[in-house]
Amino acid sequence: MPQPFTQGNQIKKRTSVLVFLKGTTAPLVLYVENPLELYEELLQVLRLNSPTAKLIEKNTIGPVKRVCIQSTSICAVALQDEQYM
């Protein structure tokens, strides 16, 4: 009987935070220790809809190591699950 391709390799899941910025087509993909916490923080910024810009600076654990975003440039946020080995 054929062996499954993933034998010996555990498929894992990680969650990233997608930040959609005004004037861009692709989202900024951020990997952090607690993605739900960052998502909720950015969602709160969107809910406030303040005309005054606030600078949001975060350390991340993915390819982007540190990010700084102006609060007024955020138009949407999302959580995305990804599978990897």
The largest sheet has its strands arranged as: 2-1-5
Q: Between the first and last Cα atoms, what is the distance in angstroms?
A: 23 Å
Give me the count of strands: 5
Put simply, the count of helices is 1
Radius of gyration: 16 Å
C-alpha geometry: elongated
Largest beta-sheet details: 3 strands, antiparallel
| Proportion of residues in β-strands | 35-45%
Series of H and E elements: EEHEEE
What structural class do helix, strand and pairing data support? alpha+beta
Uncertain segments are none
Percent helix, as a range, is: 10-25%
Mean model confidence by pLDDT: 91
Question: In words, what does this structure look like?
Answer:
By secondary structure, the protein is of the alpha+beta class. The protein has one helix at residues 35-48, and strands spanning 12-21, 28-30, 55-59, 66-70, 74-84. It has a 3-stranded antiparallel β-sheet with strand order 2-1-5, with helices on one face. The chain has a two-stranded antiparallel sheet with strand order 3-4. It is elongated. 9% of the residues are buried.
